[in-house]
Amino acid sequence: MAGRITLTMIKPHAIENGNLGNILAKIIEAGFRISGMKLMRLSLKQAQEFYKIHEEHDFYKPLTEFMSNGPIVAAILEKDDAVEDFRKLIGATDPSKADEGTIRRLFGQSTKENAVHGSDSDENAKIEADFFFSLLERY
Ligand code: ADP
Ligand code: MG
To answer: Is the beta carbon of 111 within 6 A of some atom in ligand 1?
Structure first.
């Protein structure tokens, strides 16, 4: 059975450009319930830990620097088929290839600065939710 949660981060450029509210509105309109949410700045070490699966890629260093150089909003989103439905809502990694109307198409600037993160599996959604949130921080 598909899981009920996914983990998102609104990325720094999207917050700095004033699109936090617009992105949250899209998420809520699409039927996701926010069961945990926080605004924070990741340390470089935390960004490196979060994206560890990408450490062999060329984009690992610019990505982790970008993600630790400004504010992020992390949130646990709840819905049936949360991982799959959220990936559909955000669109392809490269905003220029994402479908019309998706969050990355609307608010992304480049493959790196693509507005939002979304978990890629139920297993990673749990790992990523636990990375950011204790049980006391979930409702
Ligand atoms: P997704 O976020 O769609 O699951 P990946 O897990 O492959 O994509 O990559 C994680 C993040 O790394 C992307 O969201 C993006 O910010 C960045 N990234 C991925 N590929 C590239 C690339 N070729 N150049 C720059 N940044 C990239
Ligand atoms: Mg991914």
So the answer is: yes
